[in-house]
Each structure stands twice: as structure tokens, then as C-alpha cells.
Amino acid sequence: MTIKVKDLVNEDATLIGRKAWSDEHIYELEKKGIFGKSWLFLGHESQIKNPGDFVQAYMCETPIILARGSDDKVYANINSCSHRGVPVCRADHGNAKRFVCPYHNWSFTVEGELATIPQERELQCKPDKSQLGLKPVPRLESWKGFYFGSFDENIESLDDYLGDMKFYLGAFIDRFEGGIEFVGAPHRWVIDANWKLPMENQLGDVNHGPFLHASIVTPEANQEIIDHGLSAVTTPGHGATFRMMPEDTHPGLVAWGMESPNVMMAPPEVHQYLFDTHEKAVERVGPVRANMKGLTYGVYPNLSFLWSNASFKVSHPRGPGKVEYWSWSVVPADAPENVKKTLRNNYATFFGPGGVLEQEDSEVWMQQFHGSNFDFADDRKYFYGLGLGEEKSHPDLPGMVDVTANEHYARGFFERWRDALQAVEEE
Ligand code: FES
Ligand SMILES: [Fe+2]
Predict the structure, then answer these.
(1) How far, in Å, from the CA of 221 to the mean position of ligand 1?
(2) Is residue 374 in contact with ligand 1, taking CB distance under 6 Å?
(3) Do domains 40-142 and 163-425 have the same CATH topology?
(4) pTM summary value
């Protein structure tokens, strides 16, 4: 029997049915209603600085090449040959003059046009090559070097779509005079879980920290979250969690992206860089954002940012029960090499594929998928009601804001999810 979306998410999204995470038909609706109609993160300009530079990306299950053309403009095309559909680019990233399909050797420019067909001159009737390029992603826009694509020609601008999340993302990105850079190709790994749970986790679920991550999250760190932690929802589906540190906080305790023993053990120059950056932060991002000590962010539908370990991640669905996780270390572009190295190690230790926190999270996400997939329990929906209606506006911060124990970030996500699926359900 086909499941109806209205039976999975109730009016105020306080009860969510298990099959939201595991049903094949629902997954097909997600592809159409969410991944076909949202802005999806493709890559960062620091990965494609020179003409011919490219990186691979995905929009849901569709493979994309994001490349800088010879005209210095950025192009996003589907990585699938117009002859028989074989991927024309196999490398994760690199620099190319042409993408050459391995099957019959058709070659494509970095911009996506069909350049050559072997033995074309033997044919009397020449194909119109101008009609046989790679399929471009219909919409491509960037914000502060972050490139997003959309399959929806009529989607609002990326700027409007990000809305007030720009305030929270900018609190990190704008802190550094030289901007940020993504380090190398992403780590990629597959988890037997549904793509939404990693997203929900990073949209605002910091409450599991002291329990699931008890070996790392000290009582002091937990107390800091209880005392100063906030969860903000700008547009439903986006969310940011952070600690709003008091004005007289020592710069070492604000510690963007660098909270761990790795940093404590780092050489003095690393600490100096941290202090110097903090000193300039008020000027760069203003007094409110200077004292924000970030935790985790989510950008609807599947981009997340772990500020405390400086990592961006995309949760690429591979069916209802699998997710291909892509994960990048992010560093200030003009930082000294040992600062970048400390940040990369800090990311890898905690949130790389073998990261301590990542392993603990992945294991429960797999268990959650199992819990959402077995039989005879569908009438017992999951409870999403913590803190219902307690979020409010804040004098200094955009969006609706409350303590981190309030699950409004998840209710917002599932209200948007429900409405997006219902819009395509009867098509
Ligand atoms: S499939 Fe690409 S050249 Fe034939
Ligand atoms: Fe976690």
C-alpha cells in the first residue's frame, strides 16, 4: 500500500512516522520534490581556481562536473556522455583541456560542449555537434565562493534561498581576511542510514553530545552549552547552533574550529594566530558574531557545517537506506601552514571517516535506520515535540531562537519536507 505523506508528519511535526526514513516510494518523492527543487551545494571556488580546474559533485544521485572554463566562468554539467551515457570524467578533481569519453572517444570541452567525434569525416551526414553537449545544470549561482546548482529553472535566487543563514555562515567565513579554502578532494564514505538523519543531527541536535560522545564531551564543555548554547532556525529547514559567549570571554575559549586537545597541544604560533584572528573579529563580523562559538549548522536539504571542527559535509542519498557522505576540511586561506595542519588534523581526528565522533554518530544513524525499517511498530511514531512553541525572536539574532534542548530545528525541517513532498505527491 502506498504511504501518504500526511500520515507520516502531523500538523505541528511533533510526531513523525518511521517510514519517512525507509520507504522507497517516499524516497522517489524526495528526489522529485526536494532534490529536484532545491539549491544543492556543488563545490567551493578555492577548488577550481584556474581555467580547466574541475571537481566532481552530485545532485542527489546525478553526477555533476563543476569546472572553471577557459573564459574563467564556472560551469556545471551532468557527467554523462550524450552518446550512450557513460561518465566522461572519472577523476575526483584535476585540471583538463577536454573530457574524453572512454567508450567511443567523443570529447567535450571543459565548458561542456561536444568538441570532436572520431571518424566524423567519414560520414556523409554530419551530426549537429552544437546540440550534443553535456546537459548543463539549469541554474548555477554562488555566494561567497560557494557554488550551488538547481534542477528547478524557476527557483528563487540563491541569495534569497539562504536568507538569514548567511548571517550565521558569515560569522565563520567572514572572520578571516583572506577567506576560507576547502582542502583537497573530500573524504567520501558510505553509511547504511537514511540521508536525513545526519542532516537532522547537524541542524541542531547537540543534545546527544554528553551521552553518545561522553568520552570526549567533558562536563565543562557540556555546561558551557547549557549556559550559553542557542539553536536558531532562520527559514524552516535551515538551522544553526552555537554558544553565545559573554563579552569578556578569553579569546582562547572562543576557539573557532579548534576545540580539542589537538589545539591545546599545538605550537604557540597556532595559539597566536587564534588570538590575532579573534582580535580582528569584532571589526570583521561585528561584536555579536565575534563572540559566537559555533557548534553545528544545516542548510536545507543536505549541506552541513561542523564549525567546532571546521568541516563542511554533504549527505548524498543513495536510496532510502544508504548515504554517501562527502566531507571537507576547511581552513582560513591565509593562515600559516601549521595552523592549517592543526585544523586538518583536528577535523580528521573527530569528523573524518575514522573520526571518533563520526564513528559514534554513524553507528546510531545505522541503528536508527534499522528502527525505521522493521515491521509492527509503525503506529508508534517518533516524538519530536521537545520545546514546542518555546522558540522566540531575539534582539540580536535573526530567526527563531531558543535553548538547544528545543527540537524546533527538526520540526522546521520536517514541516518543509512534508510540504515539499505533498506538492509532488499527486503529480
Ligand atoms: S558513450 Fe561516450 S562516446 Fe560513446
Ligand atoms: Fe554527534
Answers:
(1) 55
(2) no
(3) no
(4) 0.97
Average pLDDT by stretches of 10, the chain with 427 residues: 95 98 98 98 98 98 98 98 98 97 98 97 95 98 98 98 98 94 94 98 94 90 93 98 89 71 77 86 93 95 94 98 97 93 91 94 97 94 98 98 98 98 94
Report, at the CATH architecture level, how domain 163-425 is classified. Answer: Alpha-Beta Complex (3.90)
At residue 23, φ and ψ (nearest 5 deg) are: -90, 135
Domain ranges of the chain: 40-142, 163-425
98-100/107-109 β-pairing: antiparallel
Length of the chain in terms of residues written: 427
- Of all protein residues, the one whose alpha carbon is nearest to atom 1 of ligand 1 is 84
Q: 40-142, what's its fold?
A: Rieske Iron-sulfur Protein (2.102.10)
Q: For residue 263, which amino acid is it?
A: V
Is the distance from CB of 291 to CB of 249 less than 8 angstroms?
A: yes
